[in-house]
Specification:
Blueprint: E1 7-12, E2 33-34, E3 38-39, H1 42-51, E4 55-60, H2 65-74, E5 84-89, H3 103-109, H4 111-116, E6 121-126, E7 129-131, H5 135-144, E8 149-156, E9 165-169, E10 175-180, H6 185-189, E11 201-211, H7 212-221, H8 228-239, E12 242-246, E13 251-253, H9 257-266, E14 294-296, E15 299-305, E16 310-312, E17 315-321, E18 326-327, E19 332-334, E20 337-338, E21 354-355, E22 360-362, E23 364-366, E24 371-372, E25 377-378, E26 387-388, E27 393-395, E28 398-401, E29 406-407, E30 412-413, H10 419-422
Parallel strand pairs: 1-4, 1-6, 4-5, 8-12, 14-16, 15-17, 16-18, 17-19, 17-20, 19-22, 20-23, 21-24, 22-25, 23-28, 24-29, 25-30
Antiparallel strand pairs: 2-3, 6-11, 7-13, 8-11, 9-10, 9-11, 26-27, 27-28
């Protein structure tokens, strides 16, 4: 009987992350900061460590420098521990000149390295979800059912059904049908699992456990299978023993700017459904030796505050304020995410990193190392509006200021501005 030491976890580094642009302009999706001090990749790695799965490989390709740096600096096991967290970067070889073409193709191209670890089973994870899960329970369920593949699933409602792989299962938990992102009413109604519930569908979490030999056979015998959800799982349901493992805890897919924004702001509430600290399952991240934050005559309400911040005479509500954030006098910030900074000194010195005095910011995401000049105003746009203005963007009405951007003093970004004010032609 295998043990957890025989399980290898594979965390997908994600694709180009178009739906999270411009946060993904300079980084991979799993490297995006969350909750003021963490990165998304910290979630699956921490879950693995807390579950007793200590052999972890992260597959990376797009904009992977910051992700690789964070993983290599943060997750170092000592020489007396058999576990590891390693980076498997996309590469061109004598056998293949192509980059990763999908989730399954990424695993196929790293199959030699995976097999060299001699795992009994392979746990496939995404790097852009927020949740706390004990994978050991899913692994034990997988073994107890003698399954070839086990898919982690969660109840979802009708509004979300076209964004997920949706499945139906038998009374024994075996998956009997699977549909990737059903669009039509007929396809959706055919996949209802719980007619008497609001969350009446079962959606795939993008978490899979494969018998290692089964995974290798599928990938080698089907070179045109590039994606787990679109290709491998539908094929496996009709040909192999595929079971579902239902998860009943908190889980969020951070796949869009809107979901990233809403999830972060949920965390600011005192009764938030998810906490980053649990004595039985803490979320780990890079250790930074920063001082406590200094707040001078400042009013905070429902604020998630990182360490090393300096805030003077400000009013902040329903917002996330990341590490090393500097906020000037008489600023009002609400319903916003400020990711903070990688350092304190400004590279140009004429306008320091952070938010200058007398600024009003509402409904915005301020990426790292941004400098916003004094007297600037930023307000959210109506939902559904999307546009890119170069130094800033609007995604589903949320104003996003990209990393390292300098916003001049007195800048105004708000709905109802003219094309000329917005920097548009005509």
């Amino acid at each position: 009987m295998p043990t957890l030491k025989d399980v290898l976890a594979i965390i997908m580094g994600g694709g180009k992350g178009v739906r999270l642009h411009p946060l993904t302009a300079f980084r991979a999706k799993p490297a995006i900061p969350i909750a003021g001090k963490y990165r998304l990749i910290d979630i699956p790695i921490s879950n693995c460590i807390n579950s007793g799965i200590a052999r972890i490989s992260v597959l990376t390709q797009f904009n992977s420098v910051s992700l690789n740096r964070h993983v290599s600096r943060t997750y170092r096991f000592d020489s007396f521990h058999s576990g590891y967290v390693e980076i498997l970067a996309a590469e061109q070889t004598t056998g293949s000149n192509d980059w990763y073409e999908g989730t399954a193709d990424a695993v196929r191209k790293q199959l030699l390295q995976i097999q060299s670890a001699s795992p009994s089973d392979v746990l496939i994870l995404a790097g852009d979800h927020l949740y706390r899960m004990d994978y050991s329970k899913m692994v034990e369920y997988h073994w107890a059912n003698d399954a070839d593949i086990t898919v982690g699933v969660i109840p979802i409602n009708g509004e979300e059904v076209d964004r997920f792989g949706v499945l139906k299962r038998g009374d024994d938990g075996r998956i009997i049908s699977f549909c990737e992102k059903p669009k039509t009413p007929a396809a959706q109604s055919a996949m209802v699992s719980y007619p008497d519930r609001n969350c009446c569908y079962l959606g795939s979490m993008g978490i899979y456990i494969f018998r290692a030999g089964i995974l290798a056979t599928i990938l080698n015998d089907n070179p045109d299978f590039d994606d787990f959800g679109k290709d491998i799982i539908p094929y496996a349901v009709g040909n192999l023993s595929v079971f579902s493992y239902e998860f009943d805890g908190y889980w969020r897919d951070i796949g869009t700017i809107r979901s990233f924004y809403d999830t972060n702001l949920e965390l600011t509430r005192h009764d938030a459904a998810f906490s980053f600290y649990d004595p039985q399952g803490p979320i780990y991240t890079h250790a930074r030796f920063l001082p406590g934050s200094i707040l001078e005559d400042t009013n905070l309400q429902d604020v998630l505050l990182g360490e090393g911040c300096l805030i003077k005479h400000a009013s902040i509500s329903h917002s996330v304020v990341g590490i090393r954030s500097q906020i000037g006098r008489n600023c009002v910030i609400t319903d916003s995410i400020m990711m903070g900074a990688d350092y304190y000194d400004s590279p140009n010195h004429h306008q320091p990193i952070g938010i200058g005095e007398n600024c009003y910011i509402q409904g915005a995401i301020i990426d790292k190392n941004v400098s916003i000049g004094p007297g600037s105003v930023i307000k959210s746009f109506p939902r559904g509006i999307n546009d890119d203005f170069g130094t800033w963007a609007v995604q589903d009405g949320i104003v996003v200021i990209p990393k390292n951007t300098v916003i001049p003093a007195g800048t105004v970004i708000e709905p109802g501005m003219t094309a000329k004010q917005l920097g548009l032609p005509g």
